[in-house]
Design a protein that fits this description.
Layout lengths: L1 H26 L9 E10 L4 E12 L4 E13 L5
Antiparallel strand pairs: 1-2, 2-3
Length: 84
Amino acid sequence: MQRRFMFFTMRNKLFFILTVCVLAPLWLSAQVNDAGLWTGINITKKITKKFDLNFSEELRFNENVSELGAFFSELSVDYELNKT
């Protein structure tokens, strides 16, 4: 009798776990319906034959492209070591 009782308890636990695993995606939502946009611009200016000055700006818009979420700016200088 004790063994039979354990079987029903294990079966009930298994049924509960499977039910939660199947129904959990209906209750939980990991994705948000939101359109975003990454946009950017690069500007390069040749200073001499070997030096270039570069500026890059990138913008990230959130909330259906209505608010600025993040921005990244980069300024760099390139120098050419070898003659071409």
